Amino acid sequence: MSLLFQPIQFGQLQLSNKIVIAPMCQYSANEQGELSYWHEQQWANYALSGAGLCIIEATAVQPEGRISYADLGLWNDLQGAQLKALLVKVKSLSPMPIGIQLAHAGRKASTDKPWDGRGQLAPSHAQGWQTISASNLPFYPQDHAPHAMTVADIQQLIADFAASAKRAVDAGFDLIELHAAHGYLLHQFMSPLSNQRTDEYGGSFANRIRLTLEVFQAMKNAVPEGFPIGVRLSATDWMDDVASWDVESSIGLSKALEQLGAVYIHVSSGGLHVEQKLDIHAGFQVPFAEAIKKTVNIPVIAVGLITEAMQAEGILQYEQADAIGIARVILYDPRWPWHAAAELGETVRITPQYLRCQPHGLSGLFQAF
User: Fold this and answer.
1) Which residues are catalytic?
2) What is the domain partition of the chain in residue ranges?
3) Domain 18-328's class?
4) pTM assigned to the model
5) SS3 letters for 174-240?
6) How far apart are the first and last CA of the chain?
7) pLDDT digit string (tens) for 143-191?
8) Which parts of the chain sit beneath pLDDT 70?
9) CB 251 within 8 A of CB 217
10) CA 250 → CA 163, 182, 254, 336, distances in Å?
């Protein structure tokens, strides 16, 4: 029996299988951070995929928290209402739970769309703005330096994460993921490479993780009791030759988040420093998930070039993780869970309109919702 197609609990939320569509920015919102038709078709595609859960793209809690001017936002009620209307449509297609990742890009904000150049847009640019961070250190040397956040800025940020979390619940999302990875704002506070503060949010490990814990707690206080909130981390900065964020740091943070009530840890890596030395190969981040899994009692999601069904199954069989995050592979193959079920001899639940496409000789592959 395949572990990949067994149910799993994230707090009170049960998934029908252990395949999680990880958040992927689409850079397709309007300049007010609002949905476009692209999101409608993309979310519908996710809903029909057969995955156990989809977490939609990094969604900013402040206008200046967007990676680009074309990112989604949830900093106002109009955005929340539009998300709610789209969720009603998408959930009519499938019972798959849908979560949202709440985020702030910090010093990595104010960029162009990737296919238009990706570089940072200066505050003087019509589609750019002044970025913020833990300290006034830019990501790229040529970037406009971010403003170091004041304590008042930090308190406003915490309040905005909480307000966006409440909007996410009101919109009908089933889960929230807090984005503390990939060199974005919370990660910028966590790593000594980007945080040179001397106040209660800098210096020691406890001080550097303080903001992430305070944001998590504020979000938890803003949503109904038991509503599931998970956290995505970069397990390492891939900068072993200097003092940086590393696996031991991630283990310490994961334990603290578990104590606060996080329902899972989603383990990625990198994104904090331009000189990172990644060792990229199939499943290259799985050992980080395994290291964290050994120290916590909540589910751990592994992600990162997991592209084959047997590869995903092996990660679960060898207890390296509890669930599998897939991203780019499901853009390439939107029915990846169907094909994984066929390869592993399992059944996947699909919409009845598609039952007729069941391949000859695989009579048990599909089951209608």
Assistant:
1) 184
2) 18-328
3) alpha beta
4) 0.97
5) CEEEEEECCCCHHHHHHCCCCCCCCCCCCCCHHHHCHHHHHHHHHHHHHCCCCCCEEEEEECCCCCC
6) 21
7) 999 999 999 999 999 999 999 999 999 999 999 999 999 999 999 999 9
8) none
9) no
10) 26, 13, 6, 30
